Amino acid sequence: MEQILSGSYSTRSTSSVVKSNYDDFSAPIPYRSARIIVQGRVLYVNDGWLAELSPFFASAFFGEKTLKEVELASDVSYDDFLELLRVVFLCPRRKPITVSNVTVVLPLAHRFGMAVVVKRCEEVIAREVGTMSKAKLFEVATVVSQCDRHSYAMTALVDTLSSMSQRELTTAQFSQVPGDVVADVFAAKIKRNQMKKTKWCCLF
């Protein structure tokens, strides 16, 4: 058994991951027998399918050593990784990525190089950004900025945040958003206000 993967993206357990009837990957089946150890617990996966999605797992399972058991770094949460598996595998159906679990799935998908899953996360964010509460917007913006600050999901978030009032943006929650994102939001807000002034002047 080999312990691998240390990275700059931390993951965490979250209460937003709702318990469901999706598979818990705790028992092997003929086409799902490779083992991933997360926080001392075993998850059985289809290594071929996982390798198709992730260059990290392609290297781990089919690289020079051809492992059948991989232990992830201690900062990877068991609950969060299980949620990732549920949105990747049919168990018996694939769990959808939603506003509720996107902040769990996106960091792990980015960490393991799952471009297809990252794209699905960004599509959900861009599509649902208008339905998010202020607290959720701040949370999602923080997570997305840690993965890809220049993604179109981040652009959608910045655009929505910049439409908020100055008062809404001076809350304790917004103060937790990374400084570069705050700068982008206020730059977008200034541009938005300038466009409004220009439009108003054109009426006269």
TrEMBL record:
Give the BTB domain ranges.
Answer: 32-89
Its name, as the record gives it, is: Uncharacterized protein C08C3.4
State the SMART domains in the record. BTB
Q: Which domain of life is it from?
A: Eukaryota
In terms of InterPro entries, this protein maps to:
BTB/POZ_dom, SKP1/BTB/POZ_sf
Q: Which Pfam families match?
A: BTB (PF00651)
